[in-house]
Amino acid sequence: MTLLALTRDVSPAIARCELTHLERTPIDVDVARAQHDAYEQCLEAAGCVVQRLEADADMPDSVFIEDIAVVFDEIAVITRPGAASRRAETPPVADAVARMRPVRRIEPPGTLDGGDVLRVGRTVFVGRSGRTNSAGVGQLRCALRPLGYDVREIEVRGCLHLKSAMTAASDTVLVVNRAWIPTADLTGFEIVEVHPDEHYGANVLHLADRVIHAAAFPRTRERLEQRGIRVDSVDLSELAKAEGAVTCCSILIPA
Ligand code: CIR
Questions:
Q1: What is the pTM of this model?
Q2: Which percentage of the chain shows pLDDT scores above 70?
Q3: How many beta carbons lie within 10 A of that of residue 198, not counting itself?
C-alpha cells in the first residue's frame, strides 16, 4: 500500500498568517521553504509519496494543508475553516482528494479545522476549539457515525487546535498536554505526557514505523523513545512562528 502525503508549498505571503497565541515575529520565507523541503524528505525517507500543491500569494496559511481536508478510508471531509481568511484554500485541496475518496463538506454554520480531528484506528477525537464549533463537530459526527467510527468530542482550551494538545504516536499511544484538554476522555489508550518544559511537544506525525516530531522538543522525544517509538526530528522553527507544527503540513492518504 502506498501512503500519499499531500503537501502545499510555503506562500510568499506567510508573514501575514493568522496568529492566535503567538506574537508576530519576522518569518524568513527561504528558511521556511528549506525546512518544509526537509520535512518532505523526511516523509519520503519513511516511504511516503509526496504530492505538493502550489502555494498562492493570497493565501498566507496554505502550507498548513491539514486544516483543509480530513481523509478517512471511506470518505474525505472538506472542512470549512474557522478562520474566514483560510476558506479560499479549499478548492485545489478538494480537487486533489476528490480523485481518491467520495467527498463530504462541512456547511455553514459549521466550522471545522483539520487540526481539530485526530483519527486513531476506529476512534476519532474531535476538538471543539476557537476554530471548530459545535455545528462542525455535529456534521462530522453525522458523516462518520454510519461508518462505525467512535467519535469523541473534546473541549480544547488555551491552544489553537486539538492536535496542539494531543496526537497519536501509534495505534495505542497518545502524546498529550493535559493542560489544554483537561476534560478529555482518553480511556483505552496509553498516555505519554509532554515534558513540562515543552508545552507544544504533543504534536507528532504518526507513520507506519516511526513518528516525525519537531526538533524543538528533545525531552518529549526521549519519553517517546523510552516507549520504543522511533522518532525522526525535523527543524520547523520558521513555520512554528506561524503556529504551525508537523501534522499540519500534510494530509496522509493511504492509496
Ligand atoms: C492558523 O492560524 O490557521 C495558521 N497560522 C496555523 C495553522 C496550524 N494548523 C495546524 O496546526 N493544524
A1: 0.98
A2: 100
A3: 17
